[in-house]
């Protein structure tokens, strides 16, 4: 009966689907702000999730003894009084009958009255909480963490807001025939046929709550999923390995792209040099023939092996040569390799 009343409350109040009805009166005190609940996905036939309460709070699963000082604000939400007529042939009617055990002989409907009175909303200040948990990490040795990690369908959630009653409240049901004037008796002890039942529960009872999911990384860091788009859970080792490989792939791809760009620019520069050389008359380019210039030599005659030209040997093709110049030096070497034509003349023209 309590579960049916809280479901009806959530359905009427709404809140964009974030509000969850408290399933049991005996567990109502476990859905307080910053308490932990476990969200489990049912089989594919039931799209809705099931929430299970735990005796722990967010502080209990964090490393360190420092308390979480996030503020909790509260305000009056509404005054809730509900009277409804439920058919016995519907799912909700069957659930109420099985839950309450009322005598429905000769009846086709159940009248349900829920009197919650003024209810208040208590919610955690999200911005303050995010600052509090920035440097905190999860304790993987905690029993709740170990058990949750072993179940892939389980997601840890933090209760961020709860809706509570402010006075003693009552719920009552009465079996009858649709169309009759339904009578409500909250505490009628003279009811031998069992066609009416009522319960009274104390003030400050939680009737609904909402949660934020937790996404926990392998290193113990965690995120609070403040939007419905982000999903909670545990980072798996295979997921972390795939993410690392993906990042390495992107790094290598970017590095190769930069190398190819550099090679392309170098090739364009060499092409410009060669075209500039060949477009000019020989008298202007053949500097080696002028008096006082450096002399091209065959490096093999000086026991120096063939190697890449310092000008055109660094492009896409490793162009090699046996010629060079002993009057020039680069990177500590007492000679440079240069093709006889046109690299030798271009090199010395640029050096001038």
Automatic annotation (TrEMBL):
UniProt cross-references to InterPro entries, sorted A to Z: Gasdermin_pore, GSDME
Keywords: Membrane
Subcellular location: Endomembrane system
Annotated ranges, domain Gasdermin pore forming: 1-235
Lineage: Eukaryota, Metazoa, Chordata, Craniata, Vertebrata
Chief location: membrane
Biological process, per Gene Ontology: detection of mechanical stimulus involved in sensory perception of sound; pexophagy; programmed cell death in response to reactive oxygen species; regulation of peroxisome organization; stereocilium maintenance
Family according to the record: Belongs to the gasdermin family.
Any one cellular-component term (Gene Ontology): ciliary rootlet
Protein name (record): Pejvakin
